[in-house]
Amino acid sequence: MANAPYLVALALVEFDGKRALPLTGKTQSAAAASAPAENDPANDPAQDPGDDGRTLALELLLRLWQRSDGGPLQRAAGDSSLLLIEIPLDVMSEQLPLLKASWLASGDTAAFESSLKALVIRSWRMGIAKYEPVSFSPWP
Prior knowledge:
The chain is an alpha+beta fold. It has helices at about 30-35, 50-65, 90-95, 95-105, 110-115, and strands at about 5-10, 15, 20, 25, 75, 80-85, 120-125, 135-140.
C-alpha cells in the first residue's frame, strides 16, 4: 500500500476574508492501486474517482459548512475552488504542504494551480447540479 496513490479533496476558499485551503484525503483502495495496466485509471483522466472520491467530497463539504459558522464563506478560485486530485504519497507529505503554505501566504492562485498540475496523476473539479449527485469533471 506504500506505493498506492493518495486521493485528496481540497478547497481554495476564503473564510471571513482570509484564505484557507482545507483538505482531506486517503490512500486509494487496494483494488484501485492494483488495477491491471490496461485498466489503469491514470490512462483515462476522465474516469470517475468512485466511492472514495464521493466520500472525500462529502467530508470536505461538511468541514466547509461547519467552518462557515465563523464568518462568510467564499470560493477563491471560481469553478476550480473544489478539487479532487490523485497524487503520489510522497508528494502528499512533502510537496503539498509547501504549495498550501505558499498559496495561503501569497494568494497567487495561478501559480498554485500550475504547480499542483505538475504533481498530480489525475485531477477533477467537483460540482453539483440541481437534483443531480456530485459530479467530477477532468481538471484542468
